[in-house]
Amino acid sequence: MIHMHEGPPLISEAPSTARGRATRERIVTAAAALMHQYGVAGTSLDEVRAATGTSKSQLYHYFADKSALVGAVIQRQVQQVLQAQQPELDGIDSMIALRRWRDRVVAMQRQAGAVGGCPIGRLVAELADSERGAPVELVDGFATWQRRLADGLGRMHRRGELDADPDALAAGLLAALQGGLLLAQATRSVRPLEAALDLALAGVAAHLVPAARPGPVPGRPHPS
Amino acid sequence: MIHMHEGPPLISEAPSTARGRATRERIVTAAAALMHQYGVAGTSLDEVRAATGTSKSQLYHYFADKSALVGAVIQRQVQQVLQAQQPELDGIDSMIALRRWRDRVVAMQRQAGAVGGCPIGRLVAELADSERGAPVELVDGFATWQRRLADGLGRMHRRGELDADPDALAAGLLAALQGGLLLAQATRSVRPLEAALDLALAGVAAHLVPAARPGPVPGRPHPS
DNA sequence: CAGCGGTTGGACTGGACGGTCCACTGCCAG
DNA sequence: CTGGCAGTGGACCGTCCAGTCCAACCGCTG
Known about the structure:
- The structure is a homodimer.
- Chain A is an all-alpha fold.
- Chain A folds into 2 domains: 18-73, Orthogonal Bundle (Arc Repressor Mutant, subunit A); 85-206, Tetracycline Repressor, domain 2 (Orthogonal Bundle).
- The first copy, chain A, is 66% helix and 0% strand.
- The longest helix of chain A has 23 residues, at 136-158.
- The structure holds a DNA duplex.
């Protein structure tokens, strides 16, 4: 079981030369790929070493210990995932944009051979501990991801097009994505992912205020 | 990395006395609990041994190797999960029944301290391999779970109350549940689970045929 | 009570893995 | 050219862990 460290720095060394930075980068990249495929526990430092053509001392030169390396991998994956959807994620304030995002996510998964779920999701499942929960970096990753979704939804809400809590909808969408990816990974097919996202999108659409205009929907107060 | 075995039996011994069966049972139960909490890789056989007050030779008397034990744990967890929702899962053929199921699942998670996701989900995340996917037992577990949901939905569909593919809806619901549990585990709160299920339920409701109404739905022959 | 199969205890082994240590090399500043 | 420091190579250590082995034990049946 790997526990994320807490407390004092433990930042190990930040490389000061270009070569050093390149090596560190190479290590994190390879480690991220290996851990995505085989899991954190299933990836040994020797494998990372072999995959990068580095030596043991370099790993420990740039990272205090394995959990520090895992921390770096987490940061990288969070950044990577968010960046990959950046364009579609930025301005989700209409059903059309939401569908574009859906298509993008599905396409990415299909391109990846419908194999291997969300890197963040996998890390959470593996690293979450009953008493301390998941590492903060991961929780934060989910949080900003959800916020990005909620931002656009919030705009729709403020425009009076949506009559539900944008945060809850965003959480639901994110959950649908994660669950869809999990099932997709299990069945090695994108179908469950599509089903999950479509169902969630239908749920969002159900909270659309029918006409921009007239009168409140029966039993559902119209937002100011 | 643990791989599930395939090929020849490898069933090890089935206990023939009551005492033997009790011991085997004790081992599987404890192993399931440990693996749910710490993951498969994070649970050593020595820990299982200690938790059950058994000896190494007993573990290897009843299970060929660790992966056989994992297989038994999987079977147990699948059965356990499905059984826990049996009553609510059995006749999901109305929105009311669907909500009852939702409430049941949320209550179970809340009771568990909003900690630790779905046992099956965790196993899938940890054991799924890029090239061979998840162990069949797990995929089957998901499949029967989804079928249970789809059965009720199918009845609604045949009654003309639902205008969508019951299988896709079931997959979406299951994904929402899994994703919701993952987020719940990360944030240690049931909120995301509620949000996920509510959104999915809204999605199902959106596919309800407006009036129960007489006569065939357009384009969809009414079943005899 | 003798024998036997199912069951149990626990020492032992070989290898994997995280982590340490020290000697060396390349690069840049003075 | 040279001293020094970031960067590198890789042998080595202690621990953990899956899996092996054999000697005992229990409870049944003949």
